[in-house]
Amino acid sequence: MRTVTYFFIFLNLSLAVFEEPAVYPLPFLVTSMVEVLCLLVFFGRLTHFAKVTFRNVFWKDTKNICIMVAILLSLTDLAIYGILRIYNVSSIRWSRIVRPIFLINFAESRQIRRAFRSIRNTLPEITYVFLLFMFSLLMFSLMALKLFGERNLQTAEGMPYFKNYLEIVFDLYVLVTTANSPDVMMPAFDFSSWYALFFIAFVIVNTYIFMSLFLAVVYNNYKKHLKVMFGEGGL
């Protein structure tokens, strides 16, 4: 039963690859029939679970309610989308965002729920580290605006270099991942090699120190909550 449930959950999630806008588009009739089949399997699994569970226990479990609501929303969206498609009215499948609910809320997904709840419980505790990181990013962006904004520098494409504060924040945020390194610093380096010290300091503080600290806080808190949940044995 677990294998069958996981198979149809994976099949349901995979429909996003074939539905418009799609990577490999398939006719709407094909994807809709597959989705209806998946929803029928989910409903059958839920019905089977209701028959082997006390009624008051079944209706008090929010996981079962979430699955029912997700099935109803998916069928409603599918019907509305099909009717609008008949009349050539452009629309989108908004119910795609509820499909992961099936992955989380079925009884077979206990380990996934544990991981999900650990992530949810970890997020508030890493807020302070994230705020410190954003403060550092905003301060470095302000320094970059003052250092380079008035020197009329240009990028290799001839665009103004570090003139707009929000664009600076975005460029330096990308630099934390080193995805735009060293391109983002070359106009300043070509103007004066001493400006490389600014970017070196930025990378040391934000990429090596803050990202390591952020990872350590996330890992420790996630591990702590996961141990607590395994100790309780519930979910």
TrEMBL record:
GO CC, any one term: membrane
The organism's place on the tree of life at top rank: Eukaryota
Gene3D superfamilies referenced in this protein's UniProt entry, alphabetically: 1.10.287.70
Localization, UniProt: Membrane
Membrane topology listed for this record: Multi-pass membrane protein
InterPro entries: Ion_trans_dom
Membrane spanning residue stretches: 26-44, 65-84, 126-145, 165-182, 194-219
Name this protein carries in UniProt: TPC2 protein
N-terminal signal peptide: 1-16
Molecular function terms from GO: monoatomic ion channel activity
Gene responsible for this protein: Tpcn2
Keywords associated with the record: Membrane, Signal, Transmembrane, Transmembrane helix
Domain Ion transport: 4-224
Provenance organism: Nycticryphes semicollaris
